[in-house]
Amino acid sequence: MNYPVNTIETAPEAARPTLAAAQKGFGFLPNLLAVMSTAPALLEGYLTLSKIFDASSLSAAERQVVLLAVSRENGCAYCMSVHTAIAGMQKVPVDAVNAIRDDATIPDPKLEALRRFAAAVTRARGWVSEEDSAAFLAAGYGPQQVLEVVLGVGLKTISNYTTHIAKTPLDAAFKPLEWSEAA
């Protein structure tokens, strides 16, 4: 099945205002949102959930670690590339981003605990072990952050699965940061 990379003009009417706002905010219309606009409810839900995740107690860097870890665990090349760019804009340590991209250990122990926990939640579909939870809590996080990681996993699962199903093409703006699991 082919999924269109809509423009504001070709998207369903219900998605057009959301796409116009996204284009204004990003300076261009990301292909993921253009594809999601085929289902206006998906587009609105994804962007709303993204705003909610941004309001969590996790820092911008921590949120990007979660989103990158989930995208890596799900093998989402599109989201790995995009979030590498966003992580750079949000001053996430380069060594942390590269470690996630390379499936290596993040030098910062707290961010590494977060990466491991987000990956475990994703891999185990929420059925994390007591050891996984204990390691995350021992790193200085609390029950609120456990559940906020769940929120981040849900958010990224929406975009990861959408890009897998729709084979969303990578935007030209993110090509320099293209990622593949084989690389």
From TrEMBL:
<protein>
    <submittedName>
        <fullName>Putative peroxidase-related enzyme</fullName>
    </submittedName>
</protein>
<keyword id="KW-0575">Peroxidase</keyword>
<dbReference type="InterPro" id="IPR029032">
    <property type="entry name" value="AhpD-like"/>
</dbReference>
<dbReference type="InterPro" id="IPR003779">
    <property type="entry name" value="CMD-like"/>
</dbReference>
<keyword id="KW-0560">Oxidoreductase</keyword>
<dbReference type="InterPro" id="IPR004675">
    <property type="entry name" value="AhpD_core"/>
</dbReference>
<dbReference type="Pfam" id="PF02627">
    <property type="entry name" value="CMD"/>
</dbReference>
<dbReference type="GO" id="GO:0051920">
    <property type="term" value="F:peroxiredoxin activity"/>
</dbReference>
<feature type="domain" description="Carboxymuconolactone decarboxylase-like">
    <location>
        <begin position="52"/>
        <end position="118"/>
    </location>
</feature>
